[in-house]
Design goal:
2 domains, elongated, single chain, alpha+beta, nine-stranded antiparallel sheet
Length: 195
């Protein structure tokens, strides 16, 4: 290797080290200003905050999490929104958490949402069947693809937040037994599609 090639390699290593240090030290803009605007009451719905349990606290760590019970008409929903900007591992495929809690994913299907799509999971445990819906949102688009969310997160890290807003994970479950008509969700809880 020539002296010039060694200098170029050394300069590239220093540059890579400085970029890695900057990516770790420069804080990214998070989604909390968006999530803070999530309505707690509105026409036909109301909500109340719900504290995270100890298991959730350990899973989410430094991630910023909103957990609420929303009442819309005669239905109650548990809504969890996770901004993983401060803990990238907190935003993941919700199927892992459901499986970890003992549920089997018996089926999944797409759900058309304003600005994109979500996914409905059919969950079973001990003869009981429930459903949950999830999607990832950057405030403009909604999707249920974990690989796309990871790509958005990686691009935000590489561009120091310049590639777009932070994606958040939104999980909605009916409180209690049974399933809901998920096609009504945008009309029942329009606030979930306005932040």
């Amino acid at each position: 290797m020539t002296s010039r090639a060694q200098k170029i390699l050394f300069a590239a290593l220093i540059l890579a080290g400085l970029l890695a240090l900057a990516w770790d030290l420069v804080p990214l803009p998070d989604a909390q200003s968006r999530v803070a605007h999530l309505a707690t009451v509105g026409l036909g719905f109301s909500s109340r905050e719900m504290p995270l349990n100890e298991t959730e606290k350990s899973i989410y760590g430094a991630a910023q999490v909103v957990k609420r019970i929303y009442r819309a008409g005669h239905e109650n929903f548990v809504v969890v929104i996770v901004d993983g900007t401060r803990n990238r591992h907190a935003v993941h495929d919700p199927g892992y958490c459901f499986r970890g809690a003992g549920w089997t994913i018996a089926g999944e299907r797409a759900l058309v949402l304003p600005g994109g799509a979500g996914k409905i999971l059919t969950l079973q445990k001990n003869g009981e069947t429930r459903e949950a819906v999830f999607w990832f949102s950057d405030g403009r688009e909604r999707h249920a693809q974990i690989a796309r969310c990871w790509w958005q997160t990686a691009m935000r890290r590489l561009t120091f937040g310049g590639s777009g807003p932070a994606p958040v994970l939104v999980v909605v479950q009916p409180l209690g037994d049974g399933c809901s008509d998920w096609n009504l969700l945008p009309a029942q809880l329009p606030a979930l599609f306005e932040f």
